[in-house]
Design a protein that fits this description.
single chain, 48% helix, HAD-like_sf, 12% strand, transport, alpha/beta, 362 residues, Rossmann fold, translocation, two-stranded antiparallel ribbon, elongated, protein transport, 11 helices
Length: 362
Amino acid sequence: MLARGINAGRLILKNAGFCERSPLNRGFSDSAKNGPSTSSSGLGPTIRSTPASNAKAAQAEAAAAQAKAHAQGEIPGDGRVTSALSAAGNALFFAALGGTAYFGYYTLRYTTPEMEQLIKERKQPENDFPGRSLWIPLMSWYAENRRSIEEQVKKYSDPPSEHLLPDLPPHARHVRTLVLDLDDTLIHSDWTRGRGWRTFKRPGAEDFLRQMAQYYELVVYTDQLPTYADPILDRLDPQRFIQYRLYRDSTQYINGKHVRNLNYLNRDLDKVLLITANEDAYSLQADNAVKLKPWKLEPEDTALLDLLPLLEQVFRTNVPDVRAVVRSFEGQDIPSAFRERMRALAAKQQSQKPGLFSGLRR
């Protein structure tokens, strides 16, 4: 009877949710409720860790170490792999440096035709030398690619045609050509913060064009683009005294400068004069160039008008080679020097002119 009563009581308590817990269950339950327990020895709290918390801690520690290494410039990974990559990078760098120096020497020392001739000579059996079997194919490859690159560059540095102007008709072969630069010769473009860009025509420019169109074939040869030059020339020369306009693409690009190469004009150079204020423009044919002082908006400038007597005289006297005229003024201001010559000539003629009654005798 007593045993039955005890069992009945346990069943009632179990149904009510008050089951007896084992010491292990009580420990986990208490720990979950109350947090870390204190050991009986009084040495402090005892933290019970789980596998999940250990993994998180390890991940956090690894991330912190990686961030520190990145901040210090270290490359993560195995030390042996890092060392191998570093050695390979150094080898490639010094190989490239050595190759650049080696080919650079031949680039500076020899032109492409000279390099090809050198390879041809060293291919001869009697010109044997150590490393010949490697040097010849390597330098042949270098010379071939160098010529290919130079040909590509030449397409952009040279004028698009060897004849920039059309042929003169047979009855006009005697005509002389007057080539005019644009900037600081006929006009000057100036910029200020208040008004921006404005273009001014040189004093006497319109009269100069009108006068010279009677004697010369007029050509403007500028290093500017058509989008810049055409609107200016349309206003400066509405009557189209200037017969041809040549732009930047018609210049020859040499050492970073746009040179006016008169050989491409399809005209005899003994009948071509270039008027410019740009020293770079006439570097190839200095004997054809009449050099002016660059115009920088000086209102009293008369350089173009001062040239008119000389250019008219060249036409009227039918000078066989205009280059001889230019050379005769070397190192001088041409308009001023020409005026002095004309004064001296007039004075000489006046002194030699016989008087009205000089032939009469007593």
